[in-house]
Write a structure and sequence with these properties.
With 541 residues, this protein is an alpha/beta fold. It has 16 helices and 17 strands. The strands form three sheets. Strands 11-10-12-13-9-14-15-16-17 form a nine-stranded mixed sheet, with helices on both faces. The chain has a six-stranded antiparallel sheet with strand order 5-4-3-8-7-6, covered by helices on one side. A two-stranded antiparallel ribbon has the order 1-2. Bound molecules: adenosine-5'-triphosphate (ATP) and magnesium ion. The site of magnesium ion has 4 residues, from helix 9.
Amino acid sequence: MFGKRNGQGGATGAPPTPAPPQPVAPPVAEEHVAAPTAASQPIPDLPPMAPVPESAPQSFSTAPGPETMAPPPAVAAPVAPAPAAPAAPKPAVQERSVSAPEPVTAPRSDEYYAVKTTIFNALIDTIDLTQLAQLDREAARDEIRDIVNEIIAIKDVVMSIAEQEELLEDICNDVLGYGPLEPLLARDDIADIMVNGAARTFIEVDGKVRETSIRFRDNGQLMNICQRIVSQVGRRVDESSPICDARLPDGSRVNVIAPPLAIDGPSLTIRKFKKDKLTMEKLVSFGSITPEGAKILEIIGRCRCNVLISGGTGSGKTTLLNCLTAFIEEDERVITCEDSAELQLQKPHVVRLETRPPNLEGEGEVTMRELVKNCLRMRPERIIVGEVRGPEAFDLLQAMNTGHDGSMGTLHSNSPRECLSRIESMITMGGFGLPSQTIRDMIVGSVDIIVQAARLRDGSRRITHVTEVLGSEGDVITTQDLFLYDIQGEDANGNIIGQHRSTGIARPKFWERARYFNVEMELAAALEAAEVSTEENTQRM
Ligand SMILES: Nc1ncnc2c1ncn2[C@@H]1O[C@H](COP(=O)(O)OP(=O)(O)OP(=O)(O)O)[C@@H](O)[C@H]1O
Ligand SMILES: [Mg+2]
């Protein structure tokens, strides 16, 4: 009933603006409760410890242990009693200032790593890893704590309680978790973690990418951690199968590419799962869209328009898709298809599907196309495709066209216009043998709205276009922008200044659909408000 469009020609829009405030990084701090248990063996003769030069830039130093072979460094700081009070405040996270890229974690000296390696090696010689594996995390942590404390005492390593806590935390992370990644994983303000070999790790915070002081002992340790991550989802990464996608238990999306494909050591990329999920209200508060724009998107979601969310890498497509699904009715049956399950629909009637890569023998692959096709046999009301990147575009459009109104998907492209041509080329390259005109007709008959997301050069993320697909004229699909973001300039801090506005179209193409769902008055009001609030928006900037 809401099939074809007739319409006016397309408008153009400009991209986005200023920096959204983001949550401030919570520091990482774990509490430990000391209590020894069974997993330790009596500490045998510990391997001699490499004496650490006493003139440490940090306060770690070692006094010669009883069995130290090197000449005792005369200067070894005599037991420095720790200020026993507040346990190690972790220096992990800092308040972000818009421009100054501050260090992300306190840098550690080579000496710290030397001491840690010595203690770590002694711990591995001492501890019974099989027994340790049987303990739960807290008990294992306590066990490690006791042994590390003993080793520190025997080796006469001089460090404050705070330093000791930090070292212990580090060692526990190595033995029980994801090693140096742990402090980064514990933070909720990080969007991406990018490890380029053992020595360099970058993160994205507030839309800005910066280097951290996190480093791994060597590529071997990094590879072990990568292996640990991917083995949790039954996958393997090594020289013979060097590319792997996986997911952390918390839902973070992981990609590993190992040598020999990655030339300078394993490369690990993590799209952090946000515990504090972004909602449309938050996007409004960040300035990614105005309240009126959010209302228009809400109506689009509620009246079951078929939507494609378009945007560049990390522009917020999945986040936006997730926000839009909030407007799905409770009783609608929704099926999601993703390469790595990232969506978190807070709805009762959802079936989540995930693709599967081939196994080592190259068998068992389940593609997105197969998933989407299978969906159609599952009595879906809406189909949501996490990311459309190949021939599944055809199946999604077919689903949109055949009674699954309100289906949605994201795809990589830089403008609504490019989004349309990308869909067309995905179908062309899928080998369906369809003439271009048929493909275009199919697109026009299926896609109602394209929402464009962008990450601007100042790191902010904006919704830059809400565009309707109208029809076609000759070879060209016609569109009309309903809502846009205009860039107006840049402030002194390099933040982009701009404003969202409606384009003045009072009766969008989906007006009839809105009427059917009884939301046409709300739609008219939101479109009008978006127009008149222009000045207000400018002042807000
Ligand atoms: N409007 C926004 N304001 C601030 N941060 C945002 C916004 N939208 C998304 N983010 C954050 O940006 C990061 C990337 O978002 P998201 O995963 O949605 O991007 P994407 O376009 O789907 O990326 P990819 O192309 O890798 O799939 C996430 O950490 C998310 O929390
Ligand atoms: Mg995504």
